[in-house]
Amino acid sequence: MDVLNSSTVSEFLLLGLSTAWENKVFLMFTFSLLYLGIILGNLFIVFLIIVDSHLHSPMYFLLANLSFNDVWVSSTTIPKMISDLFSEHKVISFQGCMTQICFIHIMGGVEMVLLIAMAFDRYTAICKPLHYLNIMSPRRCVSFIALGWVVGVVHAMSQFSFVINLPFCGPNKIDSFYCDFPRVIKLACLDGANFEFVVAANSGFMSMGTFFLLLLSYVFILITVWKRSSGDLSKALVTLSAHITVVVLFFTPCMFLYVWPFPTSSTDKYLFIADFAITPALNPVIYTLRNKDILIAIQRILKKILTNRMQ
């Protein structure tokens, strides 16, 4: 904290997404609708899974936690981005910037573990159906959630401990709509190459490792189904298609930013709109429209509402 207090930079200036007034109106309208959809859609999935006893299974327990996490992921950036669109001084305090960075990486770590847990759940359901309930016990499901939070906190704090000790004494303009380790490190008043390597190695390895682990798990599932069903992969593809879509949408921006050298183009910031706005908004649609159990649960709730009103 002594280092934090000795920094002469007390706030950062976020350059945002656009300067044209017409673009600002479009972005405000678009992201307001997206954020509303994220909140309502994901919280509805959480509510549905809680109140419908037919959805009290490991897969939907993990899905409810993923939806809840998506609400927090988008809430770390989207509200401020919307409020900054028509603000002349898009500033964020030093402490606020560091807090935002930590929350982004904590939630990102939780999301990765949840996606791995959901892939493991599908592997167990497809490849070991007779042992599914024993393997995916309530205790194991809760352990996955706890592990996600531990991984997220350790992942964020391991990088934060390096960044918080950097001196910030001059430039304070961040060419983005949010704070993140790569862009903040570039503003430090020293050669941040070593710190860039630490952050890239940490986040890049975690993103790539998780992505390829998930892809391998899907390939293994498809091979197993292919061997057991004489080449018929249609059922497995339908089951896995939603998970694969979410994984690709989530990890593509992460790998683009953290695996390659630190951002040199202002277009990099647009990629992370996918993680903060598009993916959290699409998740409820993907898991609802492609899931019969969720659709049936919605019908049951609507039927109960109509029945109660008629009475």
**What level of helicity do the residues show?**
over 70%
Determine the number of helices (DSSP H or I, runs of at least 4 residues): 13
User: Going across the major beta sheet, what is the strand order?
Assistant: 2-1-3
Q: Biggest sheet, in brief?
A: 3 strands, mixed
Structural class: mainly alpha
Radius of gyration: 21 Å
Order of helices and strands: HEHHHEHHHEHHHHHH
- Give the overall form: globular
Distance between the termini: 62 Å
Mean pLDDT across the residues is 82
Beta-strand fraction estimate:
under 5%
The total beta strand count reads 3
Low-confidence stretches: 1-6
Describe this entry's structure for a reader.
The protein has helices at residues 2-6, 21-51, 58-75, 78-84, 94-127, 132-135, 138-163, 181-185, 193-228, 234-258, 268-271, 273-289, 292-310; strands at 11-14, 91-93, 173-174. The chain has 311 residues and is mostly helical. A three-stranded mixed beta sheet has the order 2-1-3. Helix 2 (21-51) packs antiparallel against helix 3 (58-75) and helix 7 (138-163) runs antiparallel to helix 9 (193-228). The N and C termini lie far apart (62 Å). Residues 1-6 have low confidence and may be disordered.
